[in-house]
Specification:
single chain, about 210 residues, alpha/beta, TIM Barrel
Length: about 210
């Protein structure tokens, strides 16, 4: 039976698209959906948004994927609880037919959390041996996290690493090619090695990179 005639789920269609094949329609999804939007959409009050409400909203909006946050980014003081995130990952995987991304840090986020944002910019602009060793160690830890998420049911890994702003990358692209992209490449290769697609996300203007 051909792909055109087969009955496919949203998960199947996203897999096709990530493999470079046209799934026959435009796919839908969001990186993060704000809890305030969810409460307004379904008419809820209070802080907690139940999983059933999140699922209902994604179905109503005809989304094909969901991203479970294992990091809120280097700039956020509030980070997801790891155990809660794993529970959500497994719930989306077993109780829906959506493609489930695990959203995790990349090497720059790890550097910013270790050194502060300003420290990461300074150290990665002119990295020495200590900086490169730290980036290598962080990449190994991130690769281990990705393997764990694959084992817990992630369909793909979404690497969230904000390395740019509205005008350009934070660090000169020539320096990024020495201090950042080799480690990002290793992380992506480790994700591919466990059979998952990897998608990179950054805010800002990356045309110069």
């Amino acid at each position: 039976m051909s792909d055109t005639n087969a009955v496919r789920t949203p998960r199947d269609d996203v897999r096709l698209a990530l493999a470079g094949r046209w799934p026959g329609r435009m796919l839908r999804g969001e990186l993060v959906i704000d809890d305030g939007f969810l409460r307004d959409f379904v008419g809820l009050e209070g802080e907690a948004v139940p999983w059933s409400a999140r699922h209902a909203v994604l179905r109503r909006l005809h989304h094909d994927l969901v991203a479970v946050q294992f990091s809120a980014g280097w700039g956020s003081p509030d980070q997801p609880d790891a155990d809660d995130a794993v529970y959500l990952l497994e719930q989306w995987q077993t109780e829906t037919d959506l493609f489930v991304f695990a959203l995790m840090d990349g090497p720059f986020s790890a550097a910013a959390k270790a050194w502060s944002w300003e420290g990461a910019l300074r150290r990665l602009t002119a990295p020495g041996r200590a900086e490169l060793e730290m980036m290598a160690e962080a990449t190994v830890e991130l690769a281990e996290q990705a393997r764990s998420l694959a084992a817990r049911g992630a369909d793909g890994i979404l690497i969230g690493d904000d390395i740019a702003y509205r005008r350009s990358a934070y660090i000169n692209p020539a320096n990024l090619r020495k201090s950042y992209f080799p480690f990002l490449t290793l992380l992506v290769e480790s994700i591919h090695a466990v059979g998952l697609p990897a998608v990179f996300h950054s805010d800002g203007n990356l045309w110069g990179v």
